[in-house]
Amino acid sequence: MKLVRFGQPGQEKPALVDRQGRLRDLSQHVPDIAGAALLPEPLDRLRRLDPATLPEVPGNPRIGACVGAVGKIVCVGLNYSDHAAESGMAVPTEPVLFLKPSSSICGPFDDVEIPRGSEKTDWEVELGVVIGKMAKYVSEDRALEHVAGYCIVNDVSERAFQLERGGQWDKGKGHDTFAPIGPWLVTADEIEDPQQLDLWLEVDGKRFQDGNTRTMVFGVAHLVSYISRFMSLQPGDIISTGTPPGVGLGQKPPLYLHAGQTMRLGIAGLGEQQQRAITAP
Ligand code: ZN
After folding, report:
1. Residues 15-73: tens digit of each pLDDT
2. Most exposed among 40, 106, 124, 235, judged by the fewest C-beta atoms under 10 Å?
């Protein structure tokens, strides 16, 4: 099942994507694709609906982030060994974690802001893991039972803010629009193996990132279990699992985003995103 949210920012409504790719309105069946609606039972209820009986969404509405009311985005740094190498950092022995604030979330086709004073705004295509069932001290072999589904996250990053301004990475990770999420939340039953997904990113049609989740240092099950030892993961929380090589920082010489450029990114089975970079208002 592919779940989406459509409509103006802050007023998105829930829908599913039918076999023909049309949006079918779920407003009569669930308040939002968020929180408790992501638990196994409510998702099963949506799965049993016949999409043909749901009203078709007219026109071409804006698509919002595929999960609403996200409590937190837990990000994993340097989780592909070749990305660690291009960043000039060692492959970590334990997952590196940082948080992106929920205020950084935007829709998968919204404009991405280049912050004031930024010269090093960068891209990172990542597999997003959406938590369904609360996870606290879960074992690795039961970890995937807590996953509602998967989505694309662009972990947009300002490298000078992240690495040259002292303290933690969060400074370079939290600007508004630095977390485009979606277009779809694809439920876990449709993803046979989250460690076998191609993922890629292009800027103005030039491919920079071309990887596969099989080369993650720490896989999804390990990450859910690991994070749950430090903080509980709540329904609707998202783990962004790290990026493969090919970010701007890793180019020789480094290359960063400018206003007017367009990022396009995708993950096999999870759809595509596209964002235009603009100067922060
Ligand atoms: Zn990242």
Report:
1. 999 999 999 999 999 999 999 999 999 999 999 999 999 999 999 999 999 999 999 99
2. 40
Half-sphere exposure for 130 (CA within 13 Å, toward CB): 35
CA of 80 to the centre of ligand 1 (A): 10
Give the residue from 180, 150, 159 showing the smallest Cα distance to 115.
159
Residues 78 and 112 in one domain: yes
Note the Cα 254 to chain centre separation in Å: 24
Q: Are residues 15 and 127 in the same domain?
A: no
Is there a domain that residue 247 lies in? yes
Q: Are residues 192 and 268 in contact, defined by beta-carbon separation less than 8 angstroms?
A: no
CATH assignment at residue 146 = 3.90.850.10
- Is the link from the previous residue into 55 a cis peptide, with omega within 30 of 0? no
Measured in Å, residue 86 CA sits from the centre of ligand 1 at: 13
The answer to whether 208 and 201 have CB atoms below 8 angstroms apart is yes
77 lies in the same domain as 105: yes
pTM here is 0.97
Question: Secondary structure of 173-224 in the HEC alphabet?
Answer: CCCCCCEEECCCEEEHHHCCCCCCCEEEEEECCEEEEEEEHHHECCCHHHHH
Range of the domain at 8: 2-53
Amino acid at the residue 256? Y
Residue 118 lies in a domain: yes
Q: 152 in a domain, yes or no?
A: yes
